[in-house]
Amino acid sequence: MSKFRKGGEKGMPAISTASLPDIVFMLLFFFMVTTVMRETTLFVDVTTPKATEIKKMGKKSLVSYIYIGSPIKRMQASYGSAARIQLNDAFAEVSEIQEFIATERESRDEKEIPYMTASIKADETVKMGIITDVKQELRKANALKINYSTRKGNY
Amino acid sequence: MASKRRGLPEINAGSMADIAFLLLIFFLVTTTMDVDTGIARKLPPMPEEEQEKPPEIHAKNIYTVLINTHNQLLVEGEYMDISQLKEGAKTFIDNNGRDPSSSENPEKAIISLQNDRGTQYVTYIRVQNELAAAYNELRNKEALNKFGERYIDLNKTQKKEIRKMYPQKISEAEPKNIGGDS
Fold first, then answer.
1. Which tens digits make up the pLDDT trace of B149-166?
2. What is the DSSP string of A117-148?
3. Could you tell me the domains of chain B?
4. What is the distance between the alpha carbons of residues A78 and A84, in angstroms, rounded to a whole number?
5. CA-CA distance, B86 to B137, in Å (whole number)?
6. Between helices B16-30 and A20-34, what is the axis angle to 10°?
7. Alpha-carbon distance values, B75 to B86, B89, B108, B113 (Å)
8. How many Å lie between the alpha carbon of B26 and the closest alpha carbon of chain A?
9. How far is the C-alpha of B123 from the C-alpha of B113, rounded, in Å?
């Protein structure tokens, strides 16, 4: 009767799936580009404290992470349960921080050095003694921009 | 010869989507979108050998916050619960000479923070957070008063102006080791 009913007799034509791979590839490339693979395996337990007045950190490539916490269960047999510092992929002593900052600086462009941030990812239960030592070393290394890593949340 | 006439056989691309899906799911799972957040602070540079005398600061312009090894707070010589710290800091900063024993104006007000080596990190962060909250609330109030917008919605020059009125001056003294490290 109406114009629109004409095609009804032929049944639904199959939808072409030829462009499906293209769509999927597009998504794939998006995720490939945005993915940042986790580089370090954590040897210390870190549950960062909660805070409300937080700021987002800038470029990830300019951030050097310093992890502080007690060693994970598997490592406690050989390292004990006292809080330790982890830099990159290994436990470190406080005295190694200056060297760590120096190598981090070397791998960056000279122009970017003033924007580099040291992020302290410490566990809630850690005592301030070790944090203070780390901060003191950072001052000596002239890495003055720091960031206390926290989660968003209320008390 | 026969094949030449037919040309190259077409490769079946039907499974292409499956392969792409597989890769897609892998990247979907491994992607972490979360941005790192935290409290940004600036450390003071190491003191140089020949340092000129620091300018003298009136004792009334300093708001001392001490944290002991049992995570208790001593603010201006009195015990205080951590939940009251924000209000306390706000009244101190925004005193503007009303109370002669408190700060003269927000620009001169300094918060001095000292903790013990035995203080727990979570308490320290909470104190830092409360102090930052005090400043943020004061800045917000001023921004609403002056520009009718919240501090974060202001443009750069407006933010600078507010920041100049309420500079965040938190000084950290070298920690003491009274309560012990462990």
1. 888 888 888 888 888 888
2. EEEEEE-TT-BHHHHHHHHHHHHHTT--EEEE
3. 59-172 (3.30.420.270)
4. 13
5. 9
6. 20
7. 11, 9, 18, 9
8. 9
9. 12
Report the 10 Å Cβ neighbour count for B36: 18
Facing B43 at nearest CB: one of A21, A36, A144: A144
Tell me, what's the pLDDT at B48? 74
**Per-residue pLDDT reduced to its tens digit, B66-102:** 998 888 899 888 898 988 899 998 888 888 878 888 8
**Angle, CA of A138, A141 and A146, to the nearest 5°:** 35
A147: which chain B residues are within 8 Å (Cβ-Cβ)? 36, 38-41
Which residues of chain A make contact with B70, given a CB cutoff of 8 A? none
Q: How far apart are CA B168 and CA B131, in angstroms?
A: 9
A20 touches chain B (CB under 8 A): yes
* B104-137 burial code (b ≥16 CB/10 A, e <16): eebebbbbebbbbbbbbbbbbbbbbbbbbbbbbb
Using the predicted structure, report yes or no on whether residue B26 has a pLDDT greater than 80. Answer: yes
Q: What is the pLDDT of residues B46-73, one digit of tens each?
A: 877 766 777 777 888 888 899 988 888 9
Give the mean pLDDT of B28-42.
79
Sign, CA torsion B123/B67/A140/A146: positive
CB pairs under 8 A between A and B: 147
The answer to whether A84 and A71 have CB atoms below 8 angstroms apart is yes
Go through A61-75 and write b for each residue having 16 or more CB atoms within 10 A of its CB, e for each that does not. Answer: ebbbbbbbbbbeeeb
pLDDT tier at B33, thresholds 50, 70, 90? low
pTM: 0.77
**Torsion on CA atoms A127, A130, A132, A133, rounded to nearest 10:** 170
Alpha-carbon span B96 to B104, nearest angstrom = 5
Collect the ranges in chain A with pLDDT lower than 70: 1-10, 37-39, 155
Chain A hits for B181, Cβ within 8 Å:
127, 129
Phi, psi of A87 (to 5 degrees): -120, 130
ipTM of the complex: 0.75
